Write a sequence for this structure.
């Protein structure tokens, strides 16, 4: 099992540019989460998906941020246009929930990717 | 809404000494609680979790945590620190419905950086 795979690991870009972060969850996992980590705000949940459907995007900072999950094995987080205050480490995490029970049941053992460190100049 | 507070952003211990990292939660009903560890330039790894079974939970690398409802606490301990324990530790909470189900979102504390001196 390769774990949760994120790319790129590091991204340096200039203010105003579009940034796309990518995530491949663990095979068989059907919930996917995007978190952002900064010194000031710690770990914040941005959005999460169950079975490719966005469930809660209340943590998305503003309209410049968007996330998609076109299939069970891929998700993107896009920032357009990027700003210096978006500089952070962005983590993707996934988990599996059991079939035949409510989508949210079970203890939430998330497996995290290694993160994408974004620097916006 | 659930939340967790980690007391102390930095904890420093000597190798072989007791490690104690404090976490208090706020929730109207007992939630699910977790400790994660983050090594430099890596993602978070699960150390242990409490899901309303035994109140004393044992995790990996010799860590354990005790759920105390009366104190709304879930402190992380290890009897003897090792140099390799130096990392940042996060306490996290997940809400639980009356039916015992939990939801996808984890809320994390601000983290505690553990330094281990030789």
């Amino acid at each position: 099992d390769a774990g949760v795979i994120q790319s790129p690991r590091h991204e340096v870009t200039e203010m105003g540019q579009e940034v796309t972060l990518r995530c491949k969850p663990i095979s068989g996992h059907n919930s996917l989460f995007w978190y952002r980590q900064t010194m000031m705000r710690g770990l914040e949940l941005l959005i999460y998906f169950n079975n490719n459907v966005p469930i809660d995007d209340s943590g998305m900072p503003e309209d410049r941020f968007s996330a998609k999950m076109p299939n069970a094995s891929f998700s993107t987080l896009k920032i357009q246009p990027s700003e210096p205050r978006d500089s952070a480490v962005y983590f993707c995490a996934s988990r599996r929930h059991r079939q035949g029970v409510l989508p949210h049941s079970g203890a939430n053992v998330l497996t995290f990717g290694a993160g994408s460190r974004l620097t916006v100049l | 809404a659930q939340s967790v507070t980690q007391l102390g952003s930095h904890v420093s211990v000597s190798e072989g000494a007791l490690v104690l990292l404090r976490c208090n939660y706020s929730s109207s009903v007992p939630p699910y609680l977790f400790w994660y560890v983050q090594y430099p330039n890596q993602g978070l790894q699960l150390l242990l979790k409490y899901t309303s079974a035994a109140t004393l939970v044992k995790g990996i690398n010799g860590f354990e945590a005790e759920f105390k409802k009366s104190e709304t606490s879930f402190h992380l301990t290890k009897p003897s620190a090792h140099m390799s324990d130096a990392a940042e530790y996060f306490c996290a909470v997940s809400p639980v419905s009356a039916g015992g189900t939990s939801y996808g979102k984890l809320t994390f504390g601000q983290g505690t950086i553990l330094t281990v001196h030789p």
Notes: The interface with chain A takes residues 32, 34, 36, 41-46, 49, 51, 90, 94, 97, 99-111 of chain B (CB under 8 Å).
